Records
---
Amino acid sequence: MTVLDDLRAAFPDLVTDPDILTSLGRDSADLFGDDKTGRPLAAVRPTSTEQVAAAVRIAAAHRVPIVPQGARTGLTGGANAIDGALLVCLDRMDRIIEIDVANRLAVVQPGVVNATLRRAVAEHGLFYPPDPSSYEMSTIGGNVATNAGGMCCVKYGVTTEYVLGLEVVLADGSVLRCGRRTVKGVAGYDLTRLFVGSEGTLGIITEITLALRPVPPPGLTLVALFGSLRDAGAAVTAITSSGVGPSMLELLDKVHLRAIEAYRPMGLPVEAEAMLLVASDVEGADAKLAVVEQLCRAAGATEVYVASDAEEAEALQAARRLSHPAMTKLAQTTYGPSGEVIIEDCAVPRSSMADFCAAIERIAAQRGVTIGVLGHAGDGNLHPKILMDRTNPALTEAAKLAFDDIMQLTLSIGGTCTGEHGVGLIKRDWLAREIGPVGMRVHRAIKAALDPANLLNPGKVIAD
Amino acid sequence: MTVLDDLRAAFPDLVTDPDILTSLGRDSADLFGDDKTGRPLAAVRPTSTEQVAAAVRIAAAHRVPIVPQGARTGLTGGANAIDGALLVCLDRMDRIIEIDVANRLAVVQPGVVNATLRRAVAEHGLFYPPDPSSYEMSTIGGNVATNAGGMCCVKYGVTTEYVLGLEVVLADGSVLRCGRRTVKGVAGYDLTRLFVGSEGTLGIITEITLALRPVPPPGLTLVALFGSLRDAGAAVTAITSSGVGPSMLELLDKVHLRAIEAYRPMGLPVEAEAMLLVASDVEGADAKLAVVEQLCRAAGATEVYVASDAEEAEALQAARRLSHPAMTKLAQTTYGPSGEVIIEDCAVPRSSMADFCAAIERIAAQRGVTIGVLGHAGDGNLHPKILMDRTNPALTEAAKLAFDDIMQLTLSIGGTCTGEHGVGLIKRDWLAREIGPVGMRVHRAIKAALDPANLLNPGKVIAD
């Protein structure tokens, strides 16, 4: 029996069509080379934990590598296919199993789309905070596997803060249940948080127990415009160190403002060098934003105003969420259909924001590339985006050098190479530099303990 | 060269005096048997990471087990000595290395006392929330190793939420640095949170980077008295599911009220069957507590009032913190000098609080033991305390059965065997029952990956 025979016996709808497999080959990352996408053997779309376990057992018996996939909205190549691998697509496991209102938790399958869960719990007056820009498409399983962030994190934290418990299919096909349904718990090692953010390299997540919060008050959103990116960065540091505690603190530079306005005209202030969006969702939000306004003006803001109503605030947030397609469009407008965007994901100490922003502008000038800066500035988590054209070797090289310059700068000022997107393929070398040889040794030891044959998403996070 | 020769060469002040070693033999747990305390070989008191690494290397070379110790205020036997072990006492590593006000973080050595750090950061307008009752004695290293909780957790979470990064001496004496100084970060596996709560079984923590918060407003404290423990439990569920978000929600039963009043007379309402302490530390706390008052009255509170001033509120919290010595005193008053207190640490879904409280009262009656109930009710985290006298075999057996009854009940309603104290020696069997064979296998795999010779606090958390 070949592996395909075994798989077909268990999964009559086994996917082996080359075109479909090619369409499943990549996540949403633009990488520096095409060589990072492998040709998979087949794909399964299980509907239950038992089916995931069966797929893993068959693959393991034949030493076939396994790549778990969700909505493939990731930005690091973490869900990219590997040569000869079995793709385990979790999109059919999309059931909200339980919403426990009294204990404020939900139990979901990994394929539930983030926005679907948000809407379902909102009907009960509950709130699931993590909101990656992809939240209308990305799944909770992928969010958990990458420990996704979003715009809420400056107040509400990232995905891992909401994961109480997990069910995970391990590399041998056995099923682990870890974590809890209670608010607190310290029974044994924190396996739950070891699997969160492990990017499919330690196990396949098949069920997630999530903590929820009460829906916050509607809140207010402030817009501040600046004549330089550095001034906006200085305002960010002033706001975050003030203790005013915003529920959103986003930065967009002029490259983004113009790209988004070109992509979907809505009257954005394209003449500004940088814009901050600052929200507060507590009782007394107006007083909080009055403090923010003062801090922005002191940092040199040229214009500050509070969005007149919820619709305007929502439109500004929606504009922010369009940044990725808008920048891709800008790259294609600039370079033709082969235009692409390489997204950085640096997190730096919040006190460094002004200098960091200014340094990125210098790197763009030195390397002769266009870099748009935006991000969750309140967390010190920026996404510089480098425009690139892979058909142009000189530009590709310049973009790669700019990417490395930014990574190098990030680490040199006490930052981390990935704030929320993860390591995947794109950051493996930088992970190794960031955590050093002892850190890499511990990573390899844990990987080997849980996946001794290196079958689960091999080569992701840790280079083979 | 014997291990003592090697140790003495590196540590001229090596402790081998039997009386001192005996005094270091135990943490603050009353266990069911004396057999759980071993006789150590020696103790070192390192003052640097390098010295910790040197001690580990020497011990490892001679296959001598190692028990890390902080203030030995733990309540599970986790820091108890083991026969022939080297005790690594971290009390001299008590330096606050850095307080970074702009980025709201602190870097500390493990021996810094919790209260010392709290006071140091308060001078900068900052707040380190985790507040185990032992906070005037217990150390940050021990708090991190056990993932300690406290009264703040209902709003602010437990220790792990504040640990950004760690330096850890591994079983081979190498030094790992993991985590980050930034707000967000997903670079690789979450090793930091794997070490948090690992109770010295995976490595010895030698430096901790902690997130801080702005000091909250002073707040208000409400007292609610009830004619039954069940009614108080029902009020807890009503408050936690209301979304009012208290900053403290503590429950004390009549056994505790009377024990504390006898230990330190302060006019506690000893005629009540149960008391809730509920605080709010936001702007508009009075409106929040008005909601709490309504919910308490609806649940059958016999009396509800708001503490008249900060002194009264502080006195009530201080009374709550006296519960452990007060109950020990009650045990000794009841049974003589051999009286002891076995502390449970159950966390259950908050919706179960009323039934759970009532069930504990039934267990006490059925087993013929005195059980005082108190705890962080807002988290569903209760500490039933069983009075015991080890010189009385029948009572010891009854106490043990009551302990097991409560654990069994906790797990049967979806709770966890330890909400914040940890596993140590006292909960090893219950951990195994809670997480099952696959969970235990993963625990052993990770332990073996990081400590292949099983030298770090062997037999704690996971039975040998």
---
Amino acid sequence: MPRVHIHPVHVEFGDCDPAQIAYFPNFFRWYDAASRHFFESCGVPPWRELERSVGIIGTPVVEANSTFVRPTSYGDSVEVHTWVDEWREKSFVMKYRLMRGGVLLAEGRDVRIFAIRHPDDPSRIKAVPVPEDIRRLCE
Amino acid sequence: MPRVHIHPVHVEFGDCDPAQIAYFPNFFRWYDAASRHFFESCGVPPWRELERSVGIIGTPVVEANSTFVRPTSYGDSVEVHTWVDEWREKSFVMKYRLMRGGVLLAEGRDVRIFAIRHPDDPSRIKAVPVPEDIRRLCE
Amino acid sequence: MPRVHIHPVHVEFGDCDPAQIAYFPNFFRWYDAASRHFFESCGVPPWRELERSVGIIGTPVVEANSTFVRPTSYGDSVEVHTWVDEWREKSFVMKYRLMRGGVLLAEGRDVRIFAIRHPDDPSRIKAVPVPEDIRRLCE
Amino acid sequence: MPRVHIHPVHVEFGDCDPAQIAYFPNFFRWYDAASRHFFESCGVPPWRELERSVGIIGTPVVEANSTFVRPTSYGDSVEVHTWVDEWREKSFVMKYRLMRGGVLLAEGRDVRIFAIRHPDDPSRIKAVPVPEDIRRLCE
């Protein structure tokens, strides 16, 4: 069983669109926040510290998906349940379930890399192998 | 050949994250803006008018995905190339290619419905068949 | 002494900009969320219910200010302390103090109205006198 | 007469809130984008280049305010008219007028500094005197 982190989210007025429901790109913001909180809960230092120590600037997303099952709106308290579904050599897969009480609102999945700045061009980024020590903290 | 709409985007400082690159949920904002501009360019009235006339509140996304091929940052002028890839009975599929000059930065795809408010519960939404007149405008 | 509401905020990676600090328009998002939570904590129904019952669509901001004293970044847990500083006939003034522990990060102030849709033009909004029952709930 | 830059903005569905109007923190995003485009139009290099050459990470806002005169909604094409209203020794004042055709929608003003990372603590920032060469480019 993978380690699961639960990240609470308050859906705000400003997260909602003229259809009165949470605007779907915000679900990806919530998944992304949940992903960082997952690493934080595992004891991984903030990216800004890792950038200084080992050059890792974060875990950029190379692919992101979500299905949207039921809408949510401001005033709702929801939770993102998050875990690493698969560790690969140079990437990993995270999954997300957005829940309101026991009701599933949305399911997400993304593929992420650990990235450093490209040595030849700081405007580009470059994947590095998944650091063994970080992986161990998260299992 | 489907009708393609090209939507220009200026990547702004506030669209970028501490890794100095555009934050990925913003790609979905850009795809979504491109989708609305696609309909606007086809002559479809704003959702707020359709809500008053036929009850349609917009085209909520039921599934979204994107791959992120190359990063972009503030100062970049990019374009979203958008088209309807498939019309189904109660949904449709849009595709997006985010380009900087001739370079592909990201590819998106989403599945959308035409929605009205649920007659029994205004906090929920309900798919209606793709309106024939809207589809004709967009082909 | 006015009633003060304390609204907790987790500063996320996606709230921060390439300078590695929270992007200042997000402070206004947090103030606005704190404002709505203030009303919720006072027992005022959600705007979507008030829209149906008395036509009030919310408390649009007619003026907003903030000073930014110290930056904050992702991983910080902060709090917005919020109160109504002044009730006027057709508007009211809210104040906000963004705190990290005992340290002041920013101070905000906005002027808001209670608004209904304009009877002649639904794309415009119109101030109504501050509802006496809402004001009583909030004092 | 100060140099004025005009920055076009398309108001998008995702910029609007459940009251069907543009969510006010987005006005500050637009002002901020207009500010950067102002500097770009004057020939000032991107902050990411200045950070590498002289350590300047941008022009953080130390105070921001706006009045909101008329709402705007998705589908609107608006413009931000921007200029430097005052140069001080260690800060400067920018003004913004958000226009739809000849109609004023909002007026903004902010106070900004040129900032470097604090030499003793990279999580803090520090104002430097307004660089003479940048000021000359902008007058």
